[in-house]
User: Fold these one by one.
Assistant:
Number 1:
Amino acid sequence: MSELIIRRMKEEDLAQVCAIEEETFSMPWSRSSFQETLSYYHTLFLTAELEGEIAGYCGCYQSLEEAEITNIAVKRQLRGHGIGRRLLEELMRIGKEQGAFAYTLEVRVSNQAAIHLYESLGFVSFGIRKNFYEKPKEDAMIMWRHWEV
């Protein structure tokens, strides 16, 4: 695999980001949702670029020392190559520099590949949100990762 470049998401990335979002999620964010989110000072959204194309992205909202990871997706044909891991590691590295010492996310209970990735990065399950997801209806596992301050 060529060199993977992790960088902040830009508005000109959104066509490719939205294509990945639509291929990944049954209820994808719209382009306008991404545009609005990118304008907020308390958000951090990153892309993984491979050979000039967006291979994946992730993002979070940060509030003081906590951050909520809202999105992470990798192009279907590039999954399993560590791109999601690299994105999350960089997201948390930058967030930690900005004072975030706890991260949370929700994940479909059936998404074992994602759960395994999150656990390998130090996230632990803190409970279940019943019927959190639609299309199809499914429970969400709530996961957290904390650092010592």
Note: The chain has one domain: 4-146.
Number 2:
Amino acid sequence: MRLMITKRSLLPCLIVLVLLFSAAASSARARLIETFSEWSAFTATENGKKYCYMGSKPTEEKGDYRKRGKTYILVTHRPAEKTRDVVSIRAGYTYKPESDVEVAIGGQRFRMFTDGDHAWAYDKENDRSLTRAMRYGITMIVTGISSRGTLTTDTYSLLGFTAAYQAIGKACGVK
């Protein structure tokens, strides 16, 4: 059997490395559970409390920008804090102050507030609705505006989302 390495086959490995190094910066105990197509699932410990998260990076990034940092989305469960399905998006740039990010999955639209280079759902009900849509969707399109006025559109594949979501739920005892 011949192994072919393509840019597409390297994407999950790159996601794992980015997320692992990001988690390692905040916790020395981050551990990869498994990679499921475009999504990777992890467990970690912070201040002695276990949490689980999954993440992916865009399959396509559009925008007229000169420099952009790492871009990714995370879904996090923190059972010790009684939080689950916390969705956060890192833009790789500073968002325009007081701007919203729009997330489109199929025919559904969601708004997230911005703080620096991150976007968050307004409340836990929006987090839950967003993760529910992600479980049944195919692609997710995230549109935001940088502090310099640059419109960006990032497309995420949702292939592997449900399996990664189930893995972090099992690892953290969240149903």
Note: Residues 10-172 form a domain with the Immunoglobulin-like fold (CATH 2.60.40.1880).
